[in-house]
Amino acid sequence: MAAKMYNSFVSVVCVLQHPWELRLLPEYLRNVHQALSEAFSDYEVILVDNQSHHGQQTAEVVAEAPDEVRHNVYLLTLSRPTNRNHAILAGLDRSNGDYTVIFEFDFYHKPELILQLFEASRSEGTDIVYLRARARQAGLYFRPLYRIFYAILRHYSSLEVDGLAHDTRIISRRALNSLLRLRENLRYMKAIYSIVGYRTSWIETEEPLHGRDAEPFGERFRTSLIAITSFTTFLRSLLLWIFLGSLVFLFGVTANALKVKFTGVDLFGNAGEPFSGWTFLVVLIAIFFATTCLNLYIMSIYLSNIYNEIKQRPLYIIESIRRF
């Protein structure tokens, strides 16, 4: 039994993404109900079914649960499977609690984590508390890709994204209201949490990251592209370096062509025989290459500015207002 009953309304959001989660759903609901009913005055569980071909089965599983368990359950069945981040947003949109907990199936056997997240938020005065893994469970070939991805996020954005953060977290009402203001079609939730700001902390867990959520490589690759293109300046910086490289190439090729024309020896000391018009053609190609790279870089700046304006992200978020 919980040592203390909190007079708070807590919403729990859960996304059903895989068939094995449907098999665990009855136990998930029982565990969550027991933990929440003992600790909070009111609660709701929002299930987001992101596997449309199992929608009827999910409804039947919920209907078979005891009355006291299913009484607070709301089932949202999406018309077609979508990105996991979008499915989470569907649940957050319908959350009514003072606090909202995104609770993954990976922790169905540890419902006490919900109370731990809540107490950490209250005691530390933080608006967002997430579970942090000690390690990432990934194949040997994927590990360097993850390191490169998070290195890009760190160096080409101002975001503070934890590469070992689980989706499971608690969000206060005011932080959730600010989060829902960012209505982006291309969503990477970990980056959006960082944009919203507010005081954030974490609780370490033994559960490895992505231990059971085996997303296909294509889905993870698309999510990475969304994060890199939407929340970093990496591609624009890359075009800048390509342009600078083209200038070095232009000067090098021009110097080499002129040296061969007048001395018959290139920059590396190799003998060469200049043909009529060869120097002009090489220099012209190098100039066009550098000009093309410059145009691409300029266009990337304009497109980046247009892209940021279209998103209409809030220029600032007020955490609190005090009058003295």
UniProtKB/TrEMBL annotation:
The keyword Lipoprotein does not apply. SUPFAM superfamilies: Nucleotide-diphospho-sugar transferases (SSF53448). One of its GO terms (cellular component) is plasma membrane. It comes from the Bacteria. The keyword Transmembrane helix applies. Keywords: Membrane, Transferase, Transmembrane, Transmembrane helix. One of its GO terms (molecular function) is transferase activity. Residues 28-178 form the Glycosyltransferase 2-like domain. The chain crosses the membrane at residues 238-258, 278-303. Pfam families: Glycos_transf_2 (PF00535). InterPro entries: Glyco_trans_2-like (IPR001173), Glycosyltransferase_2 (IPR050256), Nucleotide-diphossugar_trans (IPR029044). This is Glycosyltransferase. It comes from Phaeodactylibacter luteus.
